[in-house]
Amino acid sequence: MAIGWPVAQTLAQSDSTKQVFSIADSTVLRQQVFVRGVINESAGGRRVPLTGATVRWLNTSVGTVTDSLGQFQVPVQTGQNRLVISLIRLR
Question: In this structure, are residues 34 and 74 in contact, taking their beta carbons and an 8 Å threshold?
Fold first, then answer.
């Protein structure tokens, strides 16, 4: 399964995406900004975390894998606004 969706609204609403600047020796340094989230699936009327799902920016290799709670954190990429989530399961 693989899906993609715009994250611009998520970026605008998330506290984790505020761009923070600091001054050091008259140089502006930009702090790394991340998109964080949780991937769940509906199973029997309840939400179950998707462990091991790949979360990456569309058409890039920048991404991560969800943890045991379905949580992920991926760095914001300039010009990117779609995440792709994929998971392969063996039955």
Answer: yes
Q: What is the pLDDT of residues 54-67, one digit of tens each?
A: 999 999 999 999 99
End-to-end CA distance of the chain: 14
Residues 6+ apart with CB under 8 A from 41: 47, 48, 50
Q: Which helix (H) or strand (E) holds 22?
A: strand 21-24
List, for residues 69-78, the tens digit of each pLDDT value.
Answer: 999 999 988 8
Give the number of domains in the chain: 1
The tokens for 35 are 């998109």
CA pair distance 54, 3, nearest whole angstrom: 11
C-beta atoms surrounding 81 within 10 Å: 16
Domain extent at residue 49? 2-14+30-86
In a domain, 22, yes or no: no
Write down the residue that tokens 């990117």 correspond to: 80
